[in-house]
Protein backbone atom coordinates (compact mmCIF):
# COMPACT_ATOMS: atom_id res chain seq x y z
CA UNK A 1 0.00 0.00 0.00
CA UNK A 2 1.37 3.43 -0.96
CA UNK A 3 0.75 6.17 1.61
CA UNK A 4 1.39 9.90 1.57
CA UNK A 5 4.77 10.88 2.99
CA UNK A 6 4.00 12.88 6.13
CA UNK A 7 5.34 16.44 6.00
CA UNK A 8 5.38 19.78 7.84
CA UNK A 9 2.05 20.83 6.29
CA UNK A 10 0.36 17.72 7.71
CA UNK A 11 1.80 18.49 11.14
CA UNK A 12 0.45 22.05 11.04
CA UNK A 13 -3.00 20.88 9.90
CA UNK A 14 -3.25 18.29 12.70
CA UNK A 15 -1.94 20.76 15.27
CA UNK A 16 -4.74 23.12 14.22
CA UNK A 17 -7.32 20.33 14.51
CA UNK A 18 -6.26 19.55 18.09
CA UNK A 19 -5.54 23.20 18.98
CA UNK A 20 -3.31 22.21 21.91
CA UNK A 21 0.48 21.96 21.45
CA UNK A 22 0.78 19.99 24.69
CA UNK A 23 -1.08 17.06 23.10
CA UNK A 24 0.66 16.96 19.71
CA UNK A 25 4.16 15.45 19.51
CA UNK A 26 6.31 15.83 16.39
CA UNK A 27 9.87 14.86 15.48
CA UNK A 28 12.21 14.97 18.52
CA UNK A 29 9.24 15.41 20.90
CA UNK A 30 8.03 11.85 20.18
CA UNK A 31 8.86 9.56 23.11
CA UNK A 32 10.63 6.28 22.38
CA UNK A 33 7.73 4.51 24.13
CA UNK A 34 5.54 5.14 21.08
CA UNK A 35 7.85 3.07 18.87
CA UNK A 36 7.12 -0.29 20.51
CA UNK A 37 4.75 -2.22 22.76
CA UNK A 38 5.44 -4.25 25.93
CA UNK A 39 7.26 -7.04 24.12
CA UNK A 40 9.64 -4.51 22.58
CA UNK A 41 10.96 -6.62 19.71
CA UNK A 42 9.24 -4.60 16.95
CA UNK A 43 10.24 -0.92 16.65
CA UNK A 44 9.03 1.88 14.42
CA UNK A 45 8.58 5.56 15.21
CA UNK A 46 5.43 7.37 14.05
CA UNK A 47 5.63 10.70 12.25
CA UNK A 48 3.35 12.35 14.79
CA UNK A 49 1.52 11.45 18.02
CA UNK A 50 -1.83 12.97 18.96
CA UNK A 51 -3.29 12.58 22.46
CA UNK A 52 -7.05 12.86 21.97
CA UNK A 53 -9.73 13.81 24.50
CA UNK A 54 -12.95 13.07 22.61
CA UNK A 55 -14.59 11.08 19.83
CA UNK A 56 -14.91 14.34 17.91
CA UNK A 57 -11.13 14.84 17.94
CA UNK A 58 -10.60 11.25 16.80
CA UNK A 59 -13.13 11.83 14.03
CA UNK A 60 -11.42 15.01 12.79
CA UNK A 61 -7.97 13.40 12.76
CA UNK A 62 -9.32 10.34 10.94
CA UNK A 63 -11.08 12.48 8.34
CA UNK A 64 -7.86 14.34 7.63
CA UNK A 65 -5.91 11.07 7.44
CA UNK A 66 -8.52 9.49 5.16
CA UNK A 67 -8.60 12.46 2.77
CA UNK A 68 -4.79 12.53 2.59
CA UNK A 69 -4.10 8.78 2.63
CA UNK A 70 -2.04 8.85 5.85
CA UNK A 71 -1.78 5.66 7.98
CA UNK A 72 -3.15 5.82 11.55
CA UNK A 73 -2.37 3.55 14.50
CA UNK A 74 -4.59 3.73 17.61
CA UNK A 75 -2.86 3.07 20.94
CA UNK A 76 -3.79 2.63 24.60
CA UNK A 77 -1.29 1.70 27.33
CA UNK A 78 1.01 -0.14 24.93
CA UNK A 79 0.90 -3.33 27.03
CA UNK A 80 0.29 -5.59 24.01
CA UNK A 81 2.63 -8.42 23.09
CA UNK A 82 2.22 -8.77 19.31
CA UNK A 83 3.08 -5.32 17.93
CA UNK A 84 -0.54 -4.33 17.28
CA UNK A 85 0.08 -0.79 18.60
CA UNK A 86 3.38 -0.30 16.76
CA UNK A 87 3.07 2.11 13.77
CA UNK A 88 4.87 -0.14 11.29
CA UNK A 89 3.86 2.17 8.39
CA UNK A 90 4.69 5.33 10.37
CA UNK A 91 2.10 8.11 10.02
CA UNK A 92 -0.14 9.14 12.91
CA UNK A 93 -0.43 7.48 16.32
CA UNK A 94 -3.69 8.37 18.07
CA UNK A 95 -3.04 7.96 21.80
CA UNK A 96 -6.35 7.13 23.53
CA UNK A 97 -4.98 7.01 27.09
CA UNK A 98 -6.36 10.42 28.12
CA UNK A 99 -9.90 9.40 27.21
CA UNK A 100 -10.04 7.74 30.61
CA UNK A 101 -13.39 8.63 32.21
CA UNK A 102 -16.06 6.37 33.64
CA UNK A 103 -19.14 8.04 32.16
CA UNK A 104 -22.10 6.25 33.73
CA UNK A 105 -22.99 3.46 36.12
CA UNK A 106 -26.47 2.13 35.34
CA UNK A 107 -27.44 -0.10 38.27
CA UNK A 108 -30.88 -0.80 36.84
CA UNK A 109 -29.52 -2.24 33.59
CA UNK A 110 -26.31 -3.54 35.24
CA UNK A 111 -24.03 -1.69 32.81
CA UNK A 112 -21.14 0.74 33.03
CA UNK A 113 -20.24 3.13 30.23
CA UNK A 114 -16.56 4.02 29.90
CA UNK A 115 -14.08 5.72 27.63
CA UNK A 116 -11.41 3.44 26.10
CA UNK A 117 -8.49 4.79 28.17
CA UNK A 118 -9.93 3.62 31.50
CA UNK A 119 -7.53 1.09 33.04
CA UNK A 120 -8.81 -2.38 33.86
CA UNK A 121 -7.77 -2.04 37.52
CA UNK A 122 -9.59 1.31 37.82
CA UNK A 123 -12.80 -0.12 36.37
CA UNK A 124 -12.69 -3.20 38.62
CA UNK A 125 -12.15 -1.08 41.74
CA UNK A 126 -14.93 1.37 40.80
CA UNK A 127 -17.64 -1.24 40.20
CA UNK A 128 -16.66 -3.29 43.26
CA UNK A 129 -17.18 -0.18 45.41
CA UNK A 130 -20.78 -0.33 44.18
CA UNK A 131 -21.09 -4.06 44.98
CA UNK A 132 -20.83 -4.97 41.30
CA UNK A 133 -18.43 -7.11 39.30
CA UNK A 134 -16.68 -6.86 35.91
CA UNK A 135 -15.38 -10.44 35.42
CA UNK A 136 -12.81 -10.25 32.55
CA UNK A 137 -9.45 -10.54 34.28
CA UNK A 138 -6.41 -10.54 31.96
CA UNK A 139 -3.08 -10.54 33.76
CA UNK A 140 -2.04 -6.99 32.82
CA UNK A 141 -4.19 -4.80 35.09
CA UNK A 142 -2.70 -1.57 33.68
CA UNK A 143 -4.08 -2.37 30.22
CA UNK A 144 -6.85 -0.10 28.97
CA UNK A 145 -10.41 -1.28 28.42
CA UNK A 146 -10.06 -0.22 24.77
CA UNK A 147 -7.06 -2.52 24.42
CA UNK A 148 -8.93 -5.37 26.12
CA UNK A 149 -11.81 -4.92 23.68
CA UNK A 150 -9.50 -4.78 20.67
CA UNK A 151 -7.80 -8.07 21.61
CA UNK A 152 -10.89 -9.73 23.11
CA UNK A 153 -8.80 -10.26 26.24
CA UNK A 154 -9.51 -13.35 28.31
CA UNK A 155 -7.73 -13.97 31.59
CA UNK A 156 -8.02 -16.25 34.55
CA UNK A 157 -11.78 -16.01 35.15
CA UNK A 158 -12.70 -17.03 31.60
CA UNK A 159 -13.51 -20.61 32.70
CA UNK A 160 -16.63 -19.50 34.56
CA UNK A 161 -17.49 -16.10 33.14
CA UNK A 162 -16.16 -15.94 29.58
CA UNK A 163 -13.99 -13.33 27.85
CA UNK A 164 -14.25 -9.60 27.11
CA UNK A 165 -16.60 -10.16 24.15
CA UNK A 166 -19.19 -11.65 26.52
CA UNK A 167 -19.34 -8.38 28.49
CA UNK A 168 -19.49 -5.80 25.68
CA UNK A 169 -23.04 -4.57 25.15
CA UNK A 170 -22.43 -1.55 22.96
CA UNK A 171 -19.64 0.46 21.30
CA UNK A 172 -19.18 3.94 19.92
CA UNK A 173 -16.69 3.66 17.07
CA UNK A 174 -14.94 6.12 14.76
CA UNK A 175 -14.64 4.56 11.30
CA UNK A 176 -11.58 5.06 9.06
CA UNK A 177 -13.37 7.81 7.11
CA UNK A 178 -14.06 9.70 10.35
CA UNK A 179 -17.75 8.84 10.74
CA UNK A 180 -18.90 8.21 14.33
CA UNK A 181 -21.26 5.23 14.65
CA UNK A 182 -22.81 3.17 17.44
CA UNK A 183 -23.00 -0.62 17.47
CA UNK A 184 -25.21 -2.41 20.02
CA UNK A 185 -26.41 -0.67 23.18
CA UNK A 186 -27.84 -1.47 26.60
CA UNK A 187 -30.21 -4.15 25.29
CA UNK A 188 -29.61 -7.69 26.53
CA UNK A 189 -30.69 -9.38 23.28
CA UNK A 190 -30.16 -8.16 19.74
CA UNK A 191 -30.83 -10.01 16.49
CA UNK A 192 -30.97 -6.90 14.31
CA UNK A 193 -28.79 -7.83 11.35
CA UNK A 194 -25.11 -8.65 11.44
CA UNK A 195 -23.41 -8.25 14.83
CA UNK A 196 -21.19 -5.29 13.98
CA UNK A 197 -20.21 -4.88 17.63
CA UNK A 198 -18.71 -8.37 17.63
CA UNK A 199 -16.70 -7.62 14.50
CA UNK A 200 -15.06 -4.70 16.30
CA UNK A 201 -14.28 -6.76 19.41
CA UNK A 202 -10.99 -8.54 18.71
CA UNK A 203 -10.26 -6.55 15.53
CA UNK A 204 -7.08 -5.00 17.02
CA UNK A 205 -7.87 -1.47 15.86
CA UNK A 206 -7.95 -2.41 12.16
CA UNK A 207 -11.67 -1.76 11.50
CA UNK A 208 -12.49 1.24 13.69
CA UNK A 209 -11.41 3.12 16.80
CA UNK A 210 -13.45 2.47 19.95
CA UNK A 211 -14.28 5.76 21.70
CA UNK A 212 -16.91 4.53 24.18
CA UNK A 213 -18.00 1.15 25.51
CA UNK A 214 -21.10 -0.06 27.36
CA UNK A 215 -20.08 -3.05 29.48
CA UNK A 216 -22.20 -5.64 31.21
CA UNK A 217 -21.80 -6.09 34.98
CA UNK A 218 -22.77 -8.79 37.47
CA UNK A 219 -23.56 -8.68 41.20
CA UNK A 220 -20.30 -8.96 43.16
CA UNK A 221 -19.74 -12.43 44.66
CA UNK A 222 -19.45 -12.14 48.43
CA UNK A 223 -16.94 -14.92 49.01
CA UNK A 224 -13.97 -16.43 47.18
CA UNK A 225 -11.77 -19.36 48.17
CA UNK A 226 -8.64 -20.58 46.36
CA UNK A 227 -7.02 -24.01 46.36
CA UNK A 228 -3.35 -24.58 45.58
CA UNK A 229 -2.86 -28.23 44.66
CA UNK A 230 0.63 -29.73 44.20
CA UNK A 231 1.11 -32.74 41.89
CA UNK A 232 4.18 -34.92 41.30
CA UNK A 233 4.08 -34.19 37.53
CA UNK A 234 2.50 -31.73 35.14
CA UNK A 235 0.84 -34.58 33.25
CA UNK A 236 -1.03 -35.65 36.41
CA UNK A 237 -2.09 -32.08 37.09
CA UNK A 238 -3.37 -31.41 33.58
CA UNK A 239 -5.22 -34.70 33.17
CA UNK A 240 -7.21 -33.77 36.27
CA UNK A 241 -8.69 -30.64 34.64
CA UNK A 242 -11.23 -32.35 32.33
CA UNK A 243 -12.42 -34.38 35.32
CA UNK A 244 -12.97 -31.17 37.31
CA UNK A 245 -14.97 -29.64 34.44
CA UNK A 246 -16.95 -32.86 33.96
CA UNK A 247 -17.86 -32.98 37.65
CA UNK A 248 -20.24 -30.04 37.05
CA UNK A 249 -18.40 -27.82 39.50
CA UNK A 250 -17.56 -24.48 37.91
CA UNK A 251 -14.37 -22.96 39.28
CA UNK A 252 -13.80 -19.28 38.58
CA UNK A 253 -10.25 -20.07 37.47
CA UNK A 254 -8.08 -23.13 36.84
CA UNK A 255 -4.42 -22.19 36.36
CA UNK A 256 -1.39 -24.43 35.94
CA UNK A 257 2.14 -23.55 36.97
CA UNK A 258 5.47 -25.23 37.44
CA UNK A 259 8.12 -24.95 40.14
CA UNK A 260 10.71 -23.07 38.05
CA UNK A 261 8.20 -20.29 37.22
CA UNK A 262 7.16 -20.03 40.88
CA UNK A 263 10.81 -19.60 41.87
CA UNK A 264 11.19 -16.84 39.25
CA UNK A 265 8.18 -15.06 40.78
CA UNK A 266 9.55 -15.46 44.32
CA UNK A 267 12.83 -13.84 43.31
CA UNK A 268 11.06 -11.07 41.40
CA UNK A 269 8.66 -10.22 44.25
CA UNK A 270 11.06 -10.94 47.11
CA UNK A 271 8.35 -13.05 48.79
CA UNK A 272 7.94 -16.74 49.39
CA UNK A 273 5.16 -18.71 47.71
CA UNK A 274 3.13 -20.92 50.11
CA UNK A 275 4.68 -24.03 48.52
CA UNK A 276 7.41 -24.58 45.92
CA UNK A 277 8.45 -28.17 46.52
CA UNK A 278 6.43 -29.89 43.78
CA UNK A 279 7.07 -29.98 40.06
CA UNK A 280 3.54 -28.89 39.07
CA UNK A 281 0.52 -27.17 40.57
CA UNK A 282 -3.08 -26.43 39.83
CA UNK A 283 -4.44 -23.18 41.24
CA UNK A 284 -8.22 -23.06 41.49
CA UNK A 285 -10.58 -20.35 42.61
CA UNK A 286 -14.25 -20.61 43.54
CA UNK A 287 -16.60 -17.73 44.18
CA UNK A 288 -20.18 -17.36 45.39
CA UNK A 289 -22.33 -15.55 47.91
CA UNK A 290 -21.33 -17.61 50.96
CA UNK A 291 -18.70 -20.11 52.08
CA UNK A 292 -21.44 -22.73 52.41
CA UNK A 293 -22.50 -22.19 48.80
CA UNK A 294 -19.04 -23.00 47.46
CA UNK A 295 -18.05 -25.60 50.07
CA UNK A 296 -19.60 -28.52 48.19
CA UNK A 297 -17.82 -27.52 44.97
CA UNK A 298 -14.32 -27.33 46.36
CA UNK A 299 -14.82 -30.45 48.50
CA UNK A 300 -15.72 -32.39 45.36
CA UNK A 301 -12.75 -30.96 43.43
CA UNK A 302 -10.36 -31.72 46.30
CA UNK A 303 -11.49 -35.35 46.26
CA UNK A 304 -11.00 -35.59 42.48
CA UNK A 305 -7.48 -34.14 42.72
CA UNK A 306 -6.44 -36.50 45.51
CA UNK A 307 -7.76 -39.46 43.52
CA UNK A 308 -5.59 -38.34 40.59
CA UNK A 309 -2.42 -38.24 42.68
CA UNK A 310 -2.36 -34.75 44.20
CA UNK A 311 0.15 -34.54 47.05
CA UNK A 312 -1.89 -32.13 49.17
CA UNK A 313 -4.75 -29.62 49.12
CA UNK A 314 -3.66 -26.20 50.34
CA UNK A 315 -6.57 -23.88 51.19
CA UNK A 316 -5.97 -20.14 50.79
CA UNK A 317 -8.46 -19.43 53.54
CA UNK A 318 -6.95 -16.13 54.71
CA UNK A 319 -6.62 -12.87 52.80
CA UNK A 320 -2.86 -12.91 53.33
CA UNK A 321 -2.36 -16.37 51.88
CA UNK A 322 -4.80 -15.71 49.03
CA UNK A 323 -3.00 -12.48 48.13
CA UNK A 324 0.43 -14.13 48.19
CA UNK A 325 -0.71 -16.84 45.75
CA UNK A 326 -2.48 -14.58 43.27
CA UNK A 327 0.17 -11.84 43.40
CA UNK A 328 2.76 -14.45 42.51
CA UNK A 329 0.57 -15.74 39.66
CA UNK A 330 0.06 -12.17 38.44
CA UNK A 331 3.82 -11.58 38.46
CA UNK A 332 4.78 -14.58 36.31
CA UNK A 333 5.14 -12.61 33.07
CA UNK A 334 7.19 -9.80 34.64
CA UNK A 335 9.31 -12.32 36.53
CA UNK A 336 10.18 -14.24 33.38
CA UNK A 337 10.86 -10.99 31.53
CA UNK A 338 13.21 -9.85 34.31
CA UNK A 339 15.17 -13.11 34.08
CA UNK A 340 16.31 -12.57 30.49
CA UNK A 341 17.48 -9.92 28.00
CA UNK A 342 14.61 -10.31 25.53
CA UNK A 343 11.73 -12.69 24.96
CA UNK A 344 8.89 -13.55 22.61
CA UNK A 345 5.61 -15.28 23.36
CA UNK A 346 3.54 -18.10 21.96
CA UNK A 347 -0.07 -17.47 22.99
CA UNK A 348 -1.67 -20.64 21.64
CA UNK A 349 -4.92 -22.22 22.72
CA UNK A 350 -5.44 -25.99 22.45
CA UNK A 351 -8.19 -28.35 23.60
CA UNK A 352 -8.06 -28.72 27.39
CA UNK A 353 -7.02 -32.35 27.25
CA UNK A 354 -4.01 -31.44 25.06
CA UNK A 355 -2.44 -28.85 27.39
CA UNK A 356 0.00 -31.30 28.96
CA UNK A 357 1.14 -32.59 25.57
CA UNK A 358 1.75 -29.02 24.34
CA UNK A 359 3.72 -28.04 27.44
CA UNK A 360 5.81 -31.21 27.37
CA UNK A 361 6.57 -30.55 23.70
CA UNK A 362 7.85 -27.07 24.56
CA UNK A 363 10.11 -28.59 27.24
CA UNK A 364 11.62 -30.99 24.70
CA UNK A 365 12.27 -28.08 22.34
CA UNK A 366 14.59 -26.46 24.89
CA UNK A 367 17.17 -29.22 24.48
CA UNK A 368 16.51 -29.73 20.79
CA UNK A 369 17.02 -26.06 19.83
CA UNK A 370 19.27 -24.91 22.68
CA UNK A 371 17.14 -22.08 24.02
CA UNK A 372 15.32 -21.47 27.32
CA UNK A 373 11.52 -21.81 27.23
CA UNK A 374 9.16 -21.06 30.16
CA UNK A 375 5.41 -21.58 30.33
CA UNK A 376 2.28 -21.16 32.43
CA UNK A 377 -1.35 -20.70 31.53
CA UNK A 378 -5.05 -21.21 31.84
CA UNK A 379 -5.59 -24.95 32.20
CA UNK A 380 -9.34 -24.41 32.38
CA UNK A 381 -9.60 -23.06 28.84
CA UNK A 382 -6.46 -24.46 27.20
CA UNK A 383 -4.76 -21.09 26.69
CA UNK A 384 -0.99 -21.43 27.17
CA UNK A 385 1.60 -18.69 27.51
CA UNK A 386 4.94 -20.07 26.36
CA UNK A 387 7.95 -17.72 26.40
CA UNK A 388 11.13 -18.13 24.39
CA UNK A 389 14.06 -16.36 26.10
CA UNK A 390 17.08 -14.79 24.42
CA UNK A 391 19.47 -14.68 27.41
CA UNK A 392 23.01 -14.16 26.07
CA UNK A 393 22.50 -15.34 22.50
CA UNK A 394 23.82 -13.15 19.71
CA UNK A 395 21.21 -11.36 17.60
CA UNK A 396 21.80 -13.74 14.71
CA UNK A 397 21.50 -16.88 16.86
CA UNK A 398 18.46 -15.45 18.68
CA UNK A 399 16.53 -14.85 15.45
CA UNK A 400 17.48 -18.24 14.09
CA UNK A 401 16.53 -20.24 17.21
CA UNK A 402 13.46 -18.13 17.97
CA UNK A 403 12.01 -18.66 14.49
CA UNK A 404 12.72 -22.37 14.70
CA UNK A 405 11.05 -22.64 18.13
CA UNK A 406 8.03 -20.62 16.97
CA UNK A 407 7.60 -22.67 13.80
CA UNK A 408 7.76 -25.92 15.77
CA UNK A 409 5.30 -24.81 18.45
CA UNK A 410 2.69 -23.39 16.09
CA UNK A 411 2.96 -26.53 13.97
CA UNK A 412 2.37 -28.65 17.09
CA UNK A 413 -0.61 -26.48 18.09
CA UNK A 414 -2.17 -27.06 14.66
CA UNK A 415 -1.65 -30.82 15.03
CA UNK A 416 -3.51 -30.64 18.36
CA UNK A 417 -6.43 -28.73 16.72
CA UNK A 418 -5.43 -25.50 18.44
CA UNK A 419 -5.38 -21.85 17.33
CA UNK A 420 -2.63 -19.25 16.99
CA UNK A 421 -3.89 -16.89 19.73
CA UNK A 422 -6.00 -17.45 22.81
CA UNK A 423 -6.18 -13.83 23.96
CA UNK A 424 -3.27 -11.59 22.91
CA UNK A 425 -4.20 -11.29 19.24
CA UNK A 426 -2.25 -11.45 16.00
CA UNK A 427 -1.01 -7.89 15.52
CA UNK A 428 2.09 -7.70 13.36
CA UNK A 429 4.25 -10.41 14.94
CA UNK A 430 1.94 -13.41 14.54
CA UNK A 431 0.66 -12.79 11.01
CA UNK A 432 2.78 -15.53 9.37
CA UNK A 433 1.38 -18.12 11.78
CA UNK A 434 -2.21 -17.00 11.18
CA UNK A 435 -1.63 -17.34 7.45
CA UNK A 436 -0.38 -20.89 7.97
CA UNK A 437 -3.22 -21.91 10.27
CA UNK A 438 -6.29 -20.60 8.41
CA UNK A 439 -7.72 -21.69 5.08
CA UNK A 440 -7.18 -19.20 2.22
CA UNK A 441 -10.95 -18.79 1.93
CA UNK A 442 -11.21 -17.61 5.53
CA UNK A 443 -8.32 -15.16 5.16
CA UNK A 444 -9.98 -13.77 2.02
CA UNK A 445 -13.22 -13.18 3.96
CA UNK A 446 -11.24 -11.37 6.67
CA UNK A 447 -9.58 -9.16 4.06
CA UNK A 448 -12.99 -8.47 2.55
CA UNK A 449 -14.29 -7.28 5.93
CA UNK A 450 -11.23 -5.07 6.33
CA UNK A 451 -11.81 -3.56 2.88
CA UNK A 452 -15.50 -2.90 3.62
CA UNK A 453 -14.59 -0.90 6.74
CA UNK A 454 -11.37 0.62 5.44
CA UNK A 455 -11.19 0.72 1.61
CA UNK A 456 -7.99 2.83 1.67
CA UNK A 457 -6.26 0.51 4.17
CA UNK A 458 -5.10 3.38 6.39
CA UNK A 459 -6.22 2.16 9.84
CA UNK A 460 -3.56 0.16 11.69
CA UNK A 461 -2.09 -1.17 8.45
CA UNK A 462 0.09 -4.24 8.32
CA UNK A 463 -1.78 -5.99 11.13
CA UNK A 464 -3.82 -9.21 11.46
CA UNK A 465 -4.63 -10.13 7.83
CA UNK A 466 -3.44 -7.08 5.85
Task: Give me a quick take on this structure.
By secondary structure, this protein is an alpha+beta fold.
Walk me through the structure:
- With 466 residues, the chain is of the alpha+beta class.
- Among the domains are: 102-219, Uridine Diphospho-n-acetylenolpyruvylglucosamine Reductase, domain 3 (2-Layer Sandwich), CATH 3.30.465.10; 223-333, Alpha-Beta Plaits (2-Layer Sandwich); 340-426, 2-Layer Sandwich (Alpha-Beta Plaits).
- Helix content is 36%, strand content 20%.
- It has 15 helices and 18 strands.
- The strands form four sheets. A seven-stranded antiparallel sheet has the order 15-12-14-13-17-18-16, with helices on both faces. A five-stranded antiparallel sheet has the order 5-6-10-8-9.
- A hairpin with a 4-residue loop joins strand 5 (102-106) and strand 6 (111-114).
- Helix 7 runs antiparallel to helix 12 and helix 12 packs antiparallel against helix 13 (395-415).
- The longest helix is centred in the last third of the chain and has 21 residues, at 395-415.
- It is globular.
- The termini are close together.
- The mean pLDDT is 94.
Amino acid sequence: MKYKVFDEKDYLEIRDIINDDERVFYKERISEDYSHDELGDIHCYPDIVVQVLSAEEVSKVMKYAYENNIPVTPRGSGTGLVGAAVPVCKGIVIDMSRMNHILELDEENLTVTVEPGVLLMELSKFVEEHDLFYPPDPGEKTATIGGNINTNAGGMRAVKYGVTRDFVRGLEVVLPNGDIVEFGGKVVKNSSGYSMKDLIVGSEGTLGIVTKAILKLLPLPKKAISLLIPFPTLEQAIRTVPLIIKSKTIPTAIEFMQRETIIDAEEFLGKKFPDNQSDAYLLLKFDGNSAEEIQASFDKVADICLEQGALDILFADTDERNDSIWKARGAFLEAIKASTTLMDEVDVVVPRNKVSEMVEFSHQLQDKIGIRIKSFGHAGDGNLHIYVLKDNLTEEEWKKRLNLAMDEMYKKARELNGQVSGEHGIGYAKKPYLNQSLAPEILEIMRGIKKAFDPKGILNPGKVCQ
